[in-house]
């Protein structure tokens, strides 16, 4: 379905980003990976699906490195047809003691990076009159949780950016939508399970049940594979007129 297209997925060496990259590769899209940590493993997983795979290690908190990454995608792959803004980090603390440096980093990585990749990808998409921008926002793009001021502010910002980008391109073949997951068991969330286990003096299983029980009525984690399949749908022709939505995949979290 996506043969001949190129998808750039930020923060795709792990977790949700890798799940989305693999799902798009299964549909035939060539993939540009980005992110830290082990790169060879994710590259091999994508290559095994028979598509071309590239990698750029740009730090999403640095606009100049983001520009270099987009330049690499243009030179090596002829541009970006599908942009998945996924890179993100978390930090928890009350507003009055939230470290300023963490606030700045979360806003830069979770929100501003999506502005930079989007502004740089749009001209090519508009020229080809086809493009898909999928922003991995969060349930925290729609509702709040205590201790997550920077993350919630950034994710609400991502939903806003999604709507504006969708509107500005509404008469074209370029769509922009957000996916809003609740809890997904990735390294980012395992840290929060560990913190809950330590705080409550319970084991991993009980900490997981408490974490889910607080917010996610299904009592199940969403998987990166499920989110990958939703991204595939948003990239399909059937989603031509799906524009500017913030699509919850949260086990009922925001239905409460
Ligand atoms: P993760 O920690 O498994 O993966 C994050 C990825 O981003 C990694 O590839 C990491 O190397 C990369 N990354 C981090 N900082 C970066 C930077 N400065 N520059 C480039 N890459 C960077 O996390 P995840 O849970 O897969 O999260 C992915 C996205 O999904 C994030 O935007 C997160 O906010 C969002 N999300 C996660 C959940 C969840 O429950 N896990 C829920 C809702 C939304």
TrEMBL record:
<dbReference type="InterPro" id="IPR011294">
    <property type="entry name" value="3-OHbutyrate_DH"/>
</dbReference>
<protein>
    <submittedName>
        <fullName>3-hydroxybutyrate dehydrogenase</fullName>
        <ecNumber>1.1.1.30</ecNumber>
    </submittedName>
</protein>
<dbReference type="InterPro" id="IPR036291">
    <property type="entry name" value="NAD(P)-bd_dom_sf"/>
</dbReference>
<dbReference type="InterPro" id="IPR050259">
    <property type="entry name" value="SDR"/>
</dbReference>
<dbReference type="GO" id="GO:0003858">
    <property type="term" value="F:3-hydroxybutyrate dehydrogenase activity"/>
</dbReference>
<dbReference type="InterPro" id="IPR002347">
    <property type="entry name" value="SDR_fam"/>
</dbReference>
<comment type="similarity">
    <text>Belongs to the short-chain dehydrogenases/reductases (SDR) family.</text>
</comment>
<dbReference type="Pfam" id="PF00106">
    <property type="entry name" value="adh_short"/>
</dbReference>
<keyword id="KW-0560">Oxidoreductase</keyword>
<dbReference type="InterPro" id="IPR020904">
    <property type="entry name" value="Sc_DH/Rdtase_CS"/>
</dbReference>
